[in-house]
């Protein structure tokens, strides 16, 4: 039963963090961040927030990670006001690499198709 609660909490955290980043956080470093997934531990004490950005530059990735770490307190406070949980999970931000992996696979398939013809 707790597994379903963890999934529901993860969905709510994802929706609310996306909204908070869009409307409340004024840091220009996190302007184009999209939350792609959230994983919550079984006891709901920690949440790993996976995000993606449009840029692949290492300097942009580092700036976004720094901006998210600096905004963690504001995001957690807003989550506390919006969610009806006894304890708000500790947030950890990680970049979602699935977009880059998908682009790499797409490029490999395109190269394979070019070699056939």
Give the structure's gist in a few sentences.
The chain is α+β, with helices and mostly antiparallel strands and 117 residues long. Helices cover 56% and strands 17% of the residues.
Overall morphology: globular
The tally of beta strands, per DSSP, is 3
CATH architectural designation: 2-Layer Sandwich
Overall residue-averaged pLDDT value: 89
Query: According to CATH, what is the topology?
Result: GMP Synthetase, Chain A, domain 3
The CATH superfamily turns out to be K homology (KH) domain
Alpha-beta classification: alpha+beta
What is the name of the CATH class?
Alpha Beta
* Widest beta sheet: strand line-up: 1-2-3
Rg result: 17 Å
**Stretches with pLDDT under 50, minimum 5 residues:** none
Separation of the first and last Cα atoms: 54 Å
Number of helices: 4
- Beta-strand residue fraction: 15-25%
Helix content: 55-70%
Number of domains: 1
Order of helices and strands: HEEHHEH
Largest sheet: 3 strands, mixed
